[in-house]
Structure formats: structure tokens, C-alpha cells
Amino acid sequence: MRRLLCTLAALLVFVFACGGASAEEPVGSMELQYAEHFSVDYYVGGAALLRAGDQSFLLQPDGADIPEGLEKLPRISVPAQNIYLASSSVPDLFLQMDALDAVRYTSTDAPSWRIPELREAVEEEEIAYIGKYSAPDYEALLTEGCDLVVENTMILHNPSTKEKLEALGFPVLIEYSSYEPHPLGRVEWIKLYALLCGKLPEAETFFDRQLETYQTVEALEPLHKSVAFFHITANGGVVVRRQADYITRMIELAGAENAITELPPSDNALSTETIQMESFYAQARDADVLIYNSTVAGDVTDMRSFLSQHPLLGDFKAVKEGNVWCTEMSMFQRSSAAADMIRELRAAVSGDAEEDLRYLHRIR
Predict the structure, then answer these.
(1) Of the given ranges (124-133, 208-217, 248-257, 355-364), which has the lowest mean pLDDT?
(2) Half-sphere exposure of residue 68: CA atoms within 13 angstroms, side-chain side
(3) CATH placement of domain 222-362
(4) Where are the domains of the chain?
């Protein structure tokens, strides 16, 4: 109840001007439970200050006053329209709060979408594919207009693209949800996008459902079982998840343990590591459950095709006991479903899953 009252109070501050406070100081902030890489402060007059990573933006509803001291910040008009979502993990959050009508452009073509609603929207040109994130169709953006560009951190490797978008007058928000230490922090970014397009009540309702699902699993006892999440490359390397990766974190939150604990040190921010089959065999041979990542390697439907990738897989405990699962192709585009995935991981590892799940299916 306290959180609901705080949220309602913040909404009223954002939508309506209210007296009794200095325009230079915020009068409220968005309440966040897990997200650590963005914040929103509300000001008298209706404007808000958004911080995301090392970026700051002024969120300005039509007619809202600009707080003193924030005049030089890049501005995002809210509610935003004709949004360009260059990050493929973000559109699912818009879908869940019924805000796809605010999205006009994407950098993911129709065949690459694994979420049916988004694939159909691109096929029907309700959302326009305008090329790769690193080389968008600038003319298309200028022709129809664009209130906001949302990029993931890959754009940092193509700074000239970001600079050109900004030079053309488009605010570019880099989303840092992948840096969130808790999977529910990634989901909580839905509140930011909801604020940008006027869907905060819908986002709050959705997040609360995910939180309830997660808390149900969180209350359960640890399983004391190990899981190896991986896929095999064309040249025989095995790609596994690092300990700080959010997939590993979801496995832990489901009550299990990551079977892959010995990896070479790395200074990069990659969430995966490619190791030789010999190293994978040594660490994962006795794992209780194997989960094969179909997103990169393609779907695996039966044990024969799974074992054809490397003969050593037949020696694994999980293979002998029939505890081998494959992710559904949509898993990594479903950024909204972290709690549901944690619940399904729990079911798969515990043996309570009597049939295939939404994001995992058993390799038979």
C-alpha cells in the first residue's frame, strides 16, 4: 500500500503543477525496487529529470516549465511518439503495457523477430524496419519525425551513429538494463518507458505481477542441483555464461547452481565465454540439468540431433537421466519475462515440469 501511494503521488506531481516547493529542487522521485541504472526526479511544473547510466535528460510534457538549472539538458517530449527502438530487448516491454502504437521504427527485421506480435507489426509496416542499429535510414527518421531513439550499449562501439542521430536533433537514450545486477531490475525498466509514453499505471500492474511470481519462487528452499547453460559453435567451442551474467543469476534465483565455475579471467564486459569441450566436459559432465541455448545455435528438438553435435555429450549425467532442455527461440527477446523464466527454470531443475514450458522444452 505504501508503494502504491508513493507511485500515485509521483504521478500527480508529474502530471499536474503543484505549489509549495522550489522549482530548482525535485519534489518526488520514481520509486524503484530493483533497477539501479536509471532514476527519475519529478519537478514542480510537470517536468522530470531522467538519469540513465551517465546520461541526463529533461522529460518535458507539453506546456511544462523547465526547472532552473536544467535548461541545457537534452529534452525528450512526453508522451513520446514515433519512437525508434534500436534495442531488440525493449519492444517486448512496450508490448506488455499496450504501448506499441508509440513505436514507429525498429532495427530488427521481420524474420528476426521471435515474438509473433512484433513480427506481425513489422510485416504489416505498423513498425518500420529502417536498417541495422549502426546504419539506420536517417531520411526515414527525418521524414516522419522521431521523438526518441532508444539504443542498447552496442551503440557505444559505433559512436559516429549516435553523434549523427543527435546532430539531426534526435535525443538518443542508451538503455543500460543489461547492467542490472538483478533480473527484476531489467524488467523494472518498463516503468521508465511507461513514463515516456503515458502508460505508468499499466506498467506498475505488469511489474507487480512479475514481482509476485518471483517472490513465490524466492520463498522456496534451495534445490542443491547444478545447471549448465550453453551452446556449441560450428567449430566445436562451447559458449557458457559467466558468473555475473543475468542467466546465471536467474539459475541461482531458481534455487540451483551454475555448473561452470572455472573460467579464465576477463577484463571485458561480455556475459559469455567460449571454452574447449574438454573443459566443459570436466565441469558439466555431472551437472544435474543441461540447458541448450537455441537463440544462437538453433532449435534442438530431439536427443539424436543434440548428441550429433559432439559424441562426448552422451557421457553426461543429465543426458543419461533425461534432464536436457532447450530454450525457446523467443527467450532473449522476452525481456519482460524474467520472473516467469525463473519459475520455469525452477520447474525444470526440480523435476516438477510435467510437460514443456513456455520458454523451455525438454529434449526427448
Answers:
(1) 355-364
(2) 5
(3) 3.40.50.1980
(4) 8-212, 222-362
Contact of 325 with 360, CB cutoff 8 Å: yes
Which residues lie closer than 8 Å to 8 by C-beta, 6 or more apart?
Answer: none
The fold of the 8-212 domain, in CATH, is: Rossmann fold (3.40.50)
Note the pTM of the prediction, 2 decimals.
0.89
How far, in whole angstroms, is CA 277 from its chain's centroid?
30
pLDDT at 17 exceeding the cut of 90: no
Res 23: pLDDT = 45
